[in-house]
Amino acid sequence: MRKVMIVEDEELILQGIKNIVHWNELELQLVHMAHSGQEALEMWKKEPVDIILTDIEMPEMSGLELLKKIRSEEELVRFIILTGYDDFEYAREAIHLEVENYILKPINEEELEKQLKEAAAKLEELEKKKIRYIDEKTEWLQFLSGKISETGYEYYCERFQLYTGSGHFGAAVMKWSTDSVKENKITDMILSLQNTEKQLRVVHLPPDCLLLLLDGFGESQEVKEYFQRIQNEIESQFDIVTYISIGPVFDNYRKLPECYRVAMKLQKYLLVDGFGSCVDEKHIQDRKSEDIVIDRTLLRKLILKKENEGALGYIEDLFINNVKTGVSLESLYQMTVQIAMLLQEIKKEYKLDNYETLHNLPDLLETIYRADDIFGIKALFISEINEIIRYLHEEDSQYTPVVRQIMDEVQKNYKENMNLKTLAYKYHMNASYLGQIFQKEVGCSFTQYLSSKKIEMAKELILNTNMKISDIAKQVGYPDTSYFYRKFKQHYGVAPVSLREMKKY
Predict the structure, then answer these.
(1) Would you state the CATH architecture of domain 2-126?
(2) Rounded (to 5) percent helix, strand, coil in the chain
């Protein structure tokens, strides 16, 4: 049974949609009913749904903004846009974002049910395509493993239409920074490469890399120059950063698995070279394999004496100096493990190892292993040391340091469009987990706390200034004045104008 969410800020319309649709007959389950885009997004993150019926014009976040945010995380979700505005621009943007339909209010029961059926059917079709796509990826991985018979080799060559004669071929693995890249952008990139580069075969492999197969080149340097050109064009056209590792040139596809193995081994050097690099075996031959000396006594002393600047400066120098000198990847990993072990010793000694905002040793090592580059690891250590020093400084308080920091953020930046996800990223935490500890310690959700602070600041401005109510609403982060009125009355029991009038008596 497909799960459905309705997003509508007008309660009567929300309840009306709930009651007119024959959910069971359509084999649909109504899971969520939200009054704003922001509320809908939070609900979806806790329990995702398959189909979303949403109004366009809503407070905090529009229906189209909601669509974009959810689609960035899950492209299969189907959207049906509900609106009372017969506006072509809305319709055009909705179509561009691949919504199922654009329905004007008042809503026709039969039309809505028809669109829900079509959305469910479309979803099933897309899921089947995705399964076929995944099956093909799995077959490529089996072929690239090299653990296949001669008969198997012939099958895969026919299956993938690989050239079985002799020649000169190149292969590379490309990864990209996932921070701002949506799945549809990757799809567009693959299509562009396939349409413009006739000598290039592009295979999308799980979880997040492309195998690039090149025909018609004989010299390794020529292959590298070709892939560098491809990299520059991709990064310029699609505004993403990539890392390409090139395997050795081979003369038939029986040798592709070995070439792929080398290219994947070189992917580990993303840690030190960073995105924007294009490397082959020659690139790493000159790296030095030598031990990196860490002054454990000095670093420990700086942390325990709570000298933030000194401790963080030492970490900064340690990373920058050794990356510049071109030491081996293994040496850099050994350095990071030594630092992690030292931090763990300090946490155990001072009973900090059970604090929720600090990493335990297995999690710390796992994060190091999965880091995109060496500077991500450096940032992780800086954050960890900062947290340790804060706890060593900490006085009795009802709130943990990270919750106090978030409360301070709200106090300073309540006007901004803040959300728990961006704050969680800033403080290197899981958003769901951060929301749980905030609720536990403060007694309300982050959204409720932020809203409360905005309304409190608005009250101060109403009582102590002559600003217009509409200007005050915008000042505290509510561009929709009518929505501000509702929130204010809900919080204080009186309208903003009434509160100002009461001040006179």
Answers:
(1) 3-Layer(aba) Sandwich (3.40)
(2) 60, 10, 30
